[in-house]
Specification:
Elements: H1 2-10, H2 14-23, E1 33-34, E2 48-49, H3 52-63, E3 67-68, E4 71-72, H4 76-82, E5 100-101, E6 106-107, E7 115-118, E8 124-128, E9 133-137, H5 146-158
Length: 159
């Protein structure tokens, strides 16, 4: 539904809108794409594809609350709202598998603001805004807890 709303509100495909508003301003290397359904529409609820370095650029943008090299690309307050459980919505703090849930992002438990974008079969973008640390995994590895241990160790040491 959100994909259709975006399409009719902007007159652009999701890929075209993303390219203009985010991808070009952060200097990505390749086009980002969504899977196309049988009717020729982008599948908005998932199946987003980009190259690893561009996923890292997106993570960096999010770690800086939507700012890229001094320019605000995404409104900072929207990024903060999307990645924070509000006091009035504490039921979202433990939405799935120990994670909270924001605007299509998974929120780490605890008082430190950290979040993840989780893809099918284990693709992950992990973001720690306080330290500006990011980590991207594109390997197929849905069940292994090792990535979470690695992330925790990296944040503990460098965050």
């Amino acid at each position: 539904m959100l994909g259709l709303v975006l399409h009719y509100a902007t007159g652009q495909s999701m890929c075209g809108y993303l390219q203009e508003k985010v991808w070009q301003p952060i200097g990505t290397e390749a086009d980002a794409k969504w899977l196309i359904d049988a009717e020729g529409r982008e599948v908005a609820h998932g199946f987003f594809n980009a190259v690893l370095r561009d996923y890292a650029r997106l993570a960096r943008l999010l770690a800086h609350d939507g700012a890229w090299e001094g320019k605000q690309i995404i409104p900072a307050q929207w990024v903060i709202d999307a990645t924070t459980v509000l006091a009035s919505e504490t039921y979202l703090a433990k939405a799935e598998g120990g994670f909270g849930y924001g605007y299509q992002v998974y929120l780490f438990p605890g008082s430190r603001r950290q979040f993840a974008l989780l893809g099918h079969l284990g693709q992950r973008i992990l973001v720690d805004p306080p330290s500006k640390l990011v980590m991207v995994q594109t390997a197929v590895d849905e069940k292994s807890p090792e990535i979470w241990r690695l992330w925790s160790a990296v944040v503990a040491q460098f965050g």
